[in-house]
Design a protein that fits this description.
about 160 residues; alpha/beta; Aconitase, domain 4; seven-stranded mixed β-sheet; 6 helices; 7 strands
Amino acid sequence: MMLRGRAHVFGDDVNTDVIIPAAYLNTFDPNILREHVMEGVRPGFISEVRQGDILVAGDNFGCGSSREHAPLAIKAAGISAVVASSFARIFFRNAINIGLPALVVKESKRIAEGDELEVLLEDGEVRDITQGFTLRFEPLPPFLMEILSDGGLLEHARKRMGLNV
């Protein structure tokens, strides 16, 4: 699976409070959450995003409170993947559970705002088309790739149980 989009770059220790502010935790409506994604650190971020874009960050992305809302808001905004040097464990699992690729790319800080990226999930590559370099990451194991390709853990479970809900 190949993803392609522009990079939206953030720094280290981006916590769930700035990904989606607490005022919006009373809903799981993706249409509401998307409007407020990243507004705690970049007001108006949603107006910058095009479908398929890629969020890039440094160390410890998604730290802080355990909010399933955070990856849901990111995905609802049209972001196709999050690339970071490292993730808070609970954010990583929540992202995979809703079908949002979270990729550990140690050299993610080489990517600049607005760079055009291609992500080859199975090959473990992030190609920075703008700057002309390729970064490697450990591809996700097959069982996580299966969850992602099914659209998330709930859809994966339904598929495995033969449910068409």
